[in-house]
């Protein structure tokens, strides 16, 4: 059972989302929040698997809520579900550590499948958000510009495919500890905070 917390300032939209998610027996909506601060406080209390986060909310927006959750509740995934796909909002969500970004215009099955994917450790971006991230860097970089080894590029590729450390170890015939240490060194080399930032970095710089 995937525990989901809804964060949106419009009550009727939360009710609609709750009804949509109730169609899937593997998803359980455990709470509703009206802004980013409420989302964080409820996440502390309820320990959901996924927070479905709107970005534009009064007082404390989705960026605030996402940042607090990702900094202090590392096991909780945040999937942005919003109406807005402008560059500023997308970059704010990514900088806050969001694990995915989808739009409310998506159909019900796509939203449900996105929740399941994020809960399983896969970063999810709808197509126009993916293209926005990719085009936000004017000049695409050659991996050589970042002094990346072939092994590090393998790590990046598999992370972008949603693999966890155990799966990466299996695919590359390495010990899980070797993979964990290698990814830690890679994040340090690129001055990135986590796997989500690494995936966004790879997309923006055309590395995979």
Considering the chains and any ligands shown, give keywords for the structure.
Rossmann fold, Arc Repressor Mutant, subunit A, 14% strand, six-stranded parallel sheet, 208 residues, 2 domains, alpha/beta, globular, 6 strands, single chain, 52% helix
Please give the structural blueprint.
Elements lengths: L1 E6 L3 H11 L5 E7 L2 H11 L3 E4 L8 H11 L4 E6 L4 H10 L3 E4 L4 H12 L4 E2 L1 H9 L14 H11 L4 H8 L3 H15 L4 H10 L4
Parallel strand pairs: 1-2, 1-3, 3-4, 4-5, 5-6
Helix pairs in contact: 2-3, 3-4, 7-10, 8-9
Explain how this protein is built.
Mean pLDDT is 87; it is low at 137-143. 52% of the residues lie in helices and 14% in strands. With 208 residues, the protein is α/β, with parallel strands linked by helices. The chain has two domains: 2-135, Response regulator (Rossmann fold, 3-Layer(aba) Sandwich); 143-204, Winged helix-like DNA-binding domain superfamily/Winged helix DNA-binding domain (Arc Repressor Mutant, subunit A), CATH 1.10.10. The radius of gyration is 17 Å and the shape is globular. The protein has a six-stranded parallel beta sheet, with helices on both faces. It contains ten helices and six strands; from the N terminus they run E-H-E-H-E-H-E-H-E-H-E-H-H-H-H-H. Strand 1, helix 1 (11-21) and strand 2 (27-33) form a beta-alpha-beta unit. Helix 7 packs across helix 10.
């Amino acid at each position: 059972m995937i525990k989901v917390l809804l964060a949106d300032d419009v009550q009727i939209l939360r009710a609609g989302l709750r009804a949509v998610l109730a169609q899937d027996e593997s998803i359980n909506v455990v709470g509703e929040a009206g802004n980013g601060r409420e989302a964080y406080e409820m996440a502390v209390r309820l320990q959901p698997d996924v927070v479905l986060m709107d970005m534009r909310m009064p007082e404390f927006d989705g960026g605030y809520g996402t940042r607090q959750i990702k900094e202090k509740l590392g096991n909780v995934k945040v999937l942005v579900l919003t109406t807005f796909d402008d560059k500023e909002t997308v970059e704010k969500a990514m900088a806050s550590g969001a694990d995915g970004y989808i739009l409310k215009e998506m159909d019900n099955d796509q939203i449900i499948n996105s929740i399941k994917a994020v809960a399983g450790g896969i970063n999810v971006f709808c197509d126009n958000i993916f293209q926005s991230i990719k085009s936000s860097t004017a000049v695409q970089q050659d991996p050589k510009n970042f002094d990346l080894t072939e092994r590090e590029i393998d790590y990046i590729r598999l992370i972008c495919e949603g693999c966890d450390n155990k799966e990466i170890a299996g695919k590359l015939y390495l010990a899980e500890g070797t993979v964990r240490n290698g990814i830690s060194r890679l994040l340090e080399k690129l001055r990135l905070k986590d796997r989500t930032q690494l995936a966004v970095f790879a997309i923006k710089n055309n590395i995979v």
